[in-house]
């Protein structure tokens, strides 16, 4: 269920540690940067205000210290170099624990998961990090349930993502929960990024899968997104991809983390969410628009996937308007 109405202001802190990776720092700073259409305020911070030495020859001049973590609703921890050598300074770890204790969400990008794991907040929970460091994370923090084959993991108040590009997926995932599908899709278009990739999608496609096949499947997914109101069966999708249904089904799971029919259903529910947010169409009309036929069918799948009803979902995004 969405976390908040789009009328609320969310406070975002981006915590820059020594050796911070430029792209990891830039992703949340860009996605959530303050603009009229985005109810977020962003502060970039470090262990102390001033110059922080980053990775790849860059440095960051940050205006805020750890006080920004006491202010924030969401704290992003970008990846940094050599995370397996030592934990962040105790003051940083303590500030992260305190922020979480106040109710802030902590979101790690790439090797930022090591800093989050140092707090103990990932113990007994699923998490991921860049594929190159998954074994090191397992060794250094054995109580963390490391999943090396996903793009991101959402454990509610603590979130982790894989390599840098998956940080975009994580940010868009958070946007979807905070502001809804329409806002997340708008941000994705601005970033020229895929509007949604499942957290369960593999970090990288196995080498045995030829690149042209991956491109063809991306085109098939795009084709399907424009035809969600039409009958979309496994055979229809496989025929569009010009492979057998068996091959299509197997490769599709490798690329997306979902079976073709699971992906179609989630795409339909996403479209339903956007229509509920942006139109006054009835539940019955929306069900027909997205290929689910009846309002009862839409309500069934909406509840199963999102844990709420279409009516309550719409109420969440119209409350306060």
Overall shape = globular
- Count every helix, treating DSSP H or I runs of 4 or more residues as helices: 14
Low-confidence stretches: 1-7, 199-214
Main beta-sheet strand count, sense and barrel state = 6 strands, mixed
Strand order of the largest sheet: 2-1-5-6-10-9
Could you spell the SSE succession in H and E letters?
EHEEEHEHEHEHEEEHHHHHHHHH
Number of strands: 10
- What would the average pLDDT be, to the nearest integer? 86
Structure in words:
With 321 residues, this protein is an alpha/beta fold. Helix content is 47%, strand content 12%. The chain is built from 14 helices and ten strands. It has helices at residues 22-31, 67-71, 90-102, 112-117, 134-140, 164-179, 181-191, 211-225, 234-241, 245-256, 260-278, 283-289, 295-306, 310-318; strands at 10-15, 40-45, 50-53, 59-62, 74-77, 105-108, 126-127, 145-146, 152-154, 158-161. A six-stranded mixed sheet has the order 2-1-5-6-10-9, sandwiched between helices. A two-stranded antiparallel sheet has the order 3-4. Strand 1 (10-15), helix 1 and strand 2 form a beta-alpha-beta unit. Helix 9 packs across helix 10 and helix 12 packs across helix 13 (295-306). The longest helix is centred in the last third of the chain and has 19 residues, at 260-278. The two termini are 18 Å apart.
SSE topology:
Blueprint: E1 10-15, H1 22-31, E2 40-45, E3 50-53, E4 59-62, H2 67-71, E5 74-77, H3 90-102, E6 105-108, H4 112-117, E7 126-127, H5 134-140, E8 145-146, E9 152-154, E10 158-161, H6 164-179, H7 181-191, H8 211-225, H9 234-241, H10 245-256, H11 260-278, H12 283-289, H13 295-306, H14 310-318
Parallel strand pairs: 1-2, 1-5, 5-6, 6-10, 7-8
Antiparallel strand pairs: 3-4, 9-10
